[in-house]
Structures are given as structure tokens and as C-alpha cells.
Amino acid sequence: MDVAVAAAGQAYAPYSGFRVGAVVALADGTLVTGNNQENAAYPSGLCAERVALFGAAARYPEARVKALVLVAVREGRIVPSIALCGACRQVLLETERRQRHPVRVLLCGCEEVRCVDSADALLPLSFE
């Protein structure tokens, strides 16, 4: 979670002020971070989860994604809860299907951490 908070601190979020940090943990222990990148020409920006997942796939194409940790910070404080948008859920689901192995998702809020064992639980009626 600390690595995700640090990644959120590097987010480019001048429009929303909602800084999101993500960490992809690969099976070999490598951590790949991402953060949200906003753009005035919405929706040209990209969510932290997709930055991290796509970065991991680009740099380590054969590595298995074991987990995704997500946290959001607003006005210097971790928000109470966070969830993935539909596009990020779809990308995560395709990551699972491609590697034929579930990805554990940790949604970190200031009061609790919700753990989901597979993207299937986040997107039950997914596009195939």
C-alpha cells in the first residue's frame, strides 16, 4: 500500500485532484507502479490501473501478474474506498484470461482494505 501511495503522489491530476496509485506485483516479486494521467481532452487520460498493467505487459510480457494494489489520495489523505472503472476491470479480466491465472486485487481505503480474489468477481458480465 505504501508503494501505491507513493505512486499516487506522482499522478498528474490537475483537473480532478483525485490522485490514484496502482502497483502490479508480478509472480517473481517485481513491482510495477502506475498512476492516473489526466488530460484536458477527456477521455485522453489513463487510469492508474491501466498504466501499471500495460506497463508490466510492455516491460515483462512473459511475467504473470499476481496482484494489483490500488489507492486514491485527495487533498493529501487516502480516500475511504476506491473501485476500478469498467474499462480497467475489462483490462484486468483480459490479463487474467491471457495468463490463465487469477489476479488478486487489493482496494485500499483509509478505513479498510477490500480484497478480491479474481477480476471475475469485479466484472461478472464481461465482454468476450
Topology:
Blueprint: H1 2-8, E1 18-26, E2 31-35, H2 48-59, E3 65-74, E4 77-78, H3 86-99, E5 104-108, E6 113-116
Parallel strand pairs: 3-5
Antiparallel strand pairs: 1-2, 1-3, 3-4, 5-6
Descriptors:
128 residues; globular; alpha+beta; six-stranded mixed sheet
Could you describe the 3D structure shown?
With about 130 residues, the protein is of the alpha+beta class. The protein contains three helices and six strands. It has helices at about 1-10, 50-60, 85-100; strands at about 20-25, 30-35, 65-75, 75-80, 105-110, 115. Strands 1, 2, 3, 4, 5 and 6 form a six-stranded mixed β-sheet that branches. Strand 5 and strand 6 form a beta hairpin. The chain is globular. The N and C termini lie far apart (about 30 Å).
Question: What would a concise description of this structure say?
Answer:
This protein has helices spanning 2-8, 48-59, 86-99; strands spanning 18-26, 31-35, 65-74, 77-78, 104-108, 113-116. The protein is built from three helices and six strands. The chain starts with a helix and ends in a 12-residue tail after the last strand.
Counting H and I runs of at least 4 residues, what is the number of helices?
3
The parts where pLDDT drops under 50 for at least 5 residues are none
Content-based structural category: alpha+beta
Element order, helices and strands? HEEHEEHEE
Relative strand content: 25-35%
Largest sheet: 6 strands, mixed
In helices, the fraction of residues equals: 25-40%
Shape, principal axes of CA atoms: globular
N- to C-terminal distance: 31 Å
Mean pLDDT: 95
Number of strands: 6
Radius of gyration: 14 Å
